[in-house]
Predict the 3D structure of the following.
Amino acid sequence: MRPAARRGAHAPSARGLLAVGCAVVTVSDTRRGAADLSGNLAARLLERGGHRVAVRAWVKDEPAAIRRAVRGALVRRDVDAVLVTGGTGMAPRDRTPEALAPLVERWMPGFGELYRALSFEQVGAAAWFSRAAAGVARGRLLIMLPGSTRAVELAVRHLILPELVHAARTLGRFPPEE
């Protein structure tokens, strides 16, 4: 692909593939910075996969703060996908899906279904506790993941990295393949 044909701030990754601009937002009342193992793992896996992490943010389990952080990422020209870790369980303060539902234009239910099927292989029946979800918000991919490192690794390695460029292209974030 010729550089002039690229849209926005996208550039090929070190592997020659398109690099998707990502935001990683961690929802937690306790984990920030170096203590945020899951968010840091997500960012590291995305970068190793040839993508760029343009935004890294931490917010408390408060719906308004979650929405504000994700909205801030969604308006950036260099962000094509937003990954949110944490707040997808059933504990009283796990409210990420409810906080972000007003931003979602179209839900992608297959993501959560596949995540729970893969998770079942690791954790058994406890997989149904997860409310991992994905959708489209402001023309960008929005993915909500559990906050454990095991959950993040499973989702990023097996579901997100294999389809991230395709999803961004489908949403018009990159020109179509020729």
About this structure: The chain has one domain: 11-170. The two ends are 8 Å apart (CA to CA).
